[in-house]
Amino acid sequence: MSTSVPTTDTSTPGQRARALLKVMQDKGMVPDGYIEQLTDLMENQWDPANGARVVARAWVDDDYRRLLLEDGTAACAEYGYTGPQGEYIVALEDTPTVKNVIVCSLCSCTNWPVLGLPPEWYKSFEFRARLVREGRTVLRELGTELPPSVQVCVWDTSAESRYLVLPQRPAGSEHLDEEALRRLVTKDVLIGVALPVVR
Ligand code: FE
């Protein structure tokens, strides 16, 4: 098999990705519209606002909350939040004594349709290694100080499971409607490193 040597500069990851794409396109390995469709998903559809919608609904609708905890995939699919990295979704319920946090210690997996793409820090070696060893300390460094009575429960993403954290509805949010509640739920809240706060 002959290989063509790219004549372009390939010293950066972006240049190497473009060179690889060109080779695959030249060989007819990229289906029509594939890149455009994936780019649209990443830029416009995989959004933590999706997870915020799920969490806020669970805070105000007990039937939906039960469904979310029993079958996260089905609950998210009600809003169309399915697809790559969202094939098997598990919601992790915080309680007064348990704070859930998610990580992918192997790489960077998140629940793309519901959380969006992972933040840079989530992919760092330091976060992945330290969260599983000293979760409480890492949370404190990220601004979330938990009392000793709260257990930190770290969930390592597996090959199939994609998590989202269902935090407790914060104190002082009793007067907020579902739409206002959504605004309390950020990507960090869905990962579990932050708590929803009423400002
Ligand atoms: Fe991963």
CATH topology (level 3) name of the largest domain: Nitrile Hydratase, Chain A
Question: Regions with pLDDT < 50 over 5+ consecutive residues?
Answer: none
Ligand kinds: fe (iii) ion
Largest sheet: number of strands, sense, barrel closure: 2 strands, parallel
**Numbering strands along the chain, what is their spatial order in the largest sheet?**
1-4
Count up the domains. 2
Helix fraction?
A: 40-55%
Determine the structural class based on helices, strands and strand pairing: alpha/beta
From the N-terminal CA to the C-terminal CA, the straight-line distance is 62 Å
Count of distinct strands: 4
| CATH class designation of the largest domain | Alpha Beta
* Global outline: globular
Mean pLDDT, to the nearest integer, reads 94
Order of helices and strands: HHHHHEEHHHEEHH
Tell me the β content.
5-15%
Write a structural description:
The protein has 199 residues and is α/β, with parallel strands linked by helices. The protein has two domains: 17-42, no CATH class; 47-191, Nitrile Hydratase, Chain A, CATH 3.90.330. It is 42% helix and 11% strand. It has helices at 13-26, 34-45, 48-60, 62-70, 72-77, 112-115, 125-133, 135-141, 178-182, 187-191; strands spanning 89-93, 98-103, 151-156, 162-166. The strands form two sheets. A two-stranded parallel ribbon has the order 1-4.
Please give a quick description of this structure.
By secondary structure, the protein is α/β, with parallel strands linked by helices. It has helices at 13-26, 34-45, 48-60, 62-70, 72-77, 112-115, 125-133, 135-141, 178-182, 187-191, and strands spanning 89-93, 98-103, 151-156, 162-166.
